[in-house]
């Protein structure tokens, strides 16, 4: 009983010890101060990055907007992770944890993990060169392997691609070996127009060419006036004429739909019909009977 009473006294003495509560209070104050300072510092860094690229937009010599968006997002992520890591180290040091020992151990563990995590290292190195060489950027429309869509995010380890149907594909950078970027250069819209064999081809060509000259003023996605190349194909029921148009990057689908609509409306105005399949019946029996009558 005496031992229990002594233990109880020691616990009470510890609880009511002013030095203990002073240390706890100071520690909590330091931790809260670190968190607040880290949040404010991170906000200032993000604002500085945003303003830096905003000023760059007005500079006479600048990189492309697509690359600026990629670099801005990447720098923001790097700054966030760096501030969080430093804040964590400062909190551990405040709690009395030996930070130097942890960092030394982390270096050894990191070296060991590096040998085993070769895929992770390859992803990071590939991601670095993707950004450095500006192979593609956020907002570009690309095809990587079997995946095709707009680039949502580029990180040092993964790349996110969103298809036009809404699926988000997350690809490790190390698996990216071939990339088709549709957003770097202007696109080409290709439209085939079918007319009947009975139509006046020269008249139809004149009507279409007059229409094509009017369209660039109406649709800003057209870089140059559309061009009528001529007859592309001749089938049993139709004559196919091809129209091409250089457009802004990734606007060729929209321009192709516009061209089909405008050409159809203009042909209707001139009474030119779209051809339809025809079937000719040949009766061999009737030919034999006519031949017999003629011979008789």
Topology:
Layout: H1 2-15, H2 18-56, H3 65-94, H4 99-116, H5 118-132, E1 141-144, E2 147-154, E3 158-162, E4 168-172, E5 179-181, E6 187-195, H6 201-214, E7 227-234, E8 239-247, H7 252-269, H8 284-295
Antiparallel strand pairs: 1-2, 1-5, 2-3, 3-4, 6-8, 7-8
What does this structure look like?
It is a single chain. The protein is of the alpha+beta class and 296 residues long. It has three domains: 2-116, Helix Hairpins (Orthogonal Bundle), CATH 1.10.287; 126-181, SH3 type barrels (Roll), CATH 2.30.30.60; 187-269, Alpha-Beta Plaits (2-Layer Sandwich). The protein is built from eight helices and eight strands. The radius of gyration is 36 Å and the shape is elongated. The N and C termini lie far apart (144 Å). The model has no long low-confidence stretch (mean pLDDT 79).
Comma- or semicolon-separated keywords:
single chain; 296 residues; alpha+beta; Helix Hairpins; SH3 type barrels; Alpha-Beta Plaits; three-stranded antiparallel sheet; 8 helices; elongated
């Amino acid at each position: 009983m005496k031992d229990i009473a002594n233990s109880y006294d020691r616990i009470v003495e510890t609880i009511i010890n002013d030095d203990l509560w002073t240390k706890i209070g100071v520690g909590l104050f330091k931790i809260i101060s670190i968190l607040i300072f880290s949040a404010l510092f991170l906000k200032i860094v993000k604002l500085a990055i945003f303003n830096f690229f905003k000023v760059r937009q007005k500079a006479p010599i600048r990189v492309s907007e697509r690359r600026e968006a990629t670099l801005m997002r990447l720098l923001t992520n790097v700054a966030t992770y760096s501030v969080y890591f430093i804040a964590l180290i400062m909190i551990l040091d405040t709690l009395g944890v030996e930070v130097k020992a942890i960092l030394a151990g982390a270096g050894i563990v990191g070296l060991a993990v590096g040998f085993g995590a070769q895929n992770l290292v390859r992803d990071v190195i590939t991601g670095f060169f993707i950004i450095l060489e500006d192979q593609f950027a956020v907002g570009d429309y690309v095809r990587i392997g079997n995946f095709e869509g707009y680039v949502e995010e580029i990180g040092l380890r993964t790349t996110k691609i969103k298809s036009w149907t809404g699926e988000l594909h997350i690809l490790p950078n190390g698996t990216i070996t071939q990339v088709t970027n549709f957003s770097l250069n202007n696109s080409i819209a290709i439209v085939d127009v079918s007319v009947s064999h009975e139509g006046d081809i020269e008249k139809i060509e004149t009507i279409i060419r007059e229409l094509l000259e009017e369209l660039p003023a109406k649709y800003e996605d057209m870089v140059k006036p559309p061009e009528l190349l001529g007859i592309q194909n001749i089938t049993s029921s139709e004559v196919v004429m091809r129209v091409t148009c250089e457009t802004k990057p990734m606007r060729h689908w929209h321009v192709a739909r516009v061209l089909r609509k405008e050409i159809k409306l203009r042909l209707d105005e001139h009474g030119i019909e779209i051809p339809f399949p025809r079937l000719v019946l040949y009766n061999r029996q009737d030919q034999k009977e006519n031949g017999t009558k003629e011979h008789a």
